[in-house]
Amino acid sequence: MTEVVAEPAGGARVLLVEDEPNMARTLAKILERKGYEVATAGNGQMALDALAGGTFHVIVTDLNMPVMDGMALLRRLQGDAAPPAGERRLLSPPTIVLTGHGSTQAAVEAMKLGAWDYLVKPCNPDELLMTLAQVLRMSDLERENRRLREVIERTQGFGEIIGQSAAMQDIYQAITALAQNATTVLITGESGTGKELVAHSIHTRGPRAERPFIALNCGAVSDSLLDSQLFGHRRGAFTGAIADHEGVFQAAHGGTLFLDEIADIPAALQVKFLRAIQEREVTPIGSNRPIKVDVRLIAATNRDLAAEVQLGNFRSDLYYRLNVVHLPLPPLRERREDVPLLARHYIERYAATFNVAPKAIQTAALARLESYEWPGNIRELQNVIERCFALGPTGDITLASLTPLVRSPAARTEPVVQFGAEVPSLEATERVLMAAALRQANGNKNQTARILGIDRQRLYRKLEKYGLE
Predict the structure, then answer these.
(1) pTM (2 decimals)?
(2) Which of 11, 86, 211, 233 is most buried by its number of CB atoms within 10 A?
(3) Dihedral of alpha carbons 347, 352, 355, 358, sign
(4) Residue 210 pLDDT more than 50?
């Protein structure tokens, strides 16, 4: 079976199918001068023989030929016509057809049969070379897309979780093991590392997969409303409670409850929360009758809960109840080999969203993506790729396409702290990251919150705290 091999255009092998010897010699010389390796065939049958015995990256074929014309060749290559007994069906390289002047209808029919493009004879050499380069480039992109899809399916098969690094292989093994039981899991990691995706993957691979998966970001709900969101309330329990409301514990009954930003549960509510997960029952606001719930609890945070316990911000008994199995997620800067795979994944996603062809990433741009520190992790990379499509649906992703923060050399430099030097405080570091995200988002608050992986309510508190409004 003929296989299409990825090589630079200059080293590509071209099969030229042309029955006029003078025309064949002329076209072959044009291509060979540009570094292409050219084989010729006088008709469609000779082309099939050549394909059966060798590897070619592209076919350039005339339509009007004896024995087997270009149309019959296309039908054989596309599988519309069955091969003679004893012959294998061929995998077709991309095909450019040559048609005489005034025969555009034949060219249209050839395109319907799978030809990539057509040229009118006599061919302009520059037009032929340009078309050939474009066809090879598109073929390379399709081949790379297929390869990456195969890598994704082979290496992880975990839906939206993308990565083939050793760190991610460990995560996949942990997900597979944890999915088979109902143990409470604490997922930790920086904002944008995919904590909810991991939680959902644990749920969908376990026995509760057909039951609800309910997610709540505890940091996105005000303290006064969090009690109701978690445990529910009865009608008339407080002003505005015009109907009974079941909390997320009840909504997730029989399934999985994922609580993100668990460190933001206020101290006054932590005792009630601890009782709920100990006793597996909740009491809605305005009721004195506890309700039994059966949930698999997965919690997540981007903060150091052990440190929060030491600071007195988080109950130690609640921490130990949550930290039955600890699953830390690596930041993107610690698995840089996954950046090209992630970038291609989001390129395909936004190509479909914007209804355009996938973009290629130029070498310099990809190198910068791989060397950047990614303080916003995967979410930030996703936003960078989306921006490339939003600013222009066509063209490659170049260094200039990237955000100023990403393409700046300073963004790739890790701070070096000398022994004995003063280490910046956590607040100082957080302020720098907040300011950088604001600059990247050009002051847009929603975009800034997405880059940082926090909700708008927390963003506004931080901006006020650091005087960045």
Answers:
(1) 0.58
(2) 233
(3) positive
(4) yes
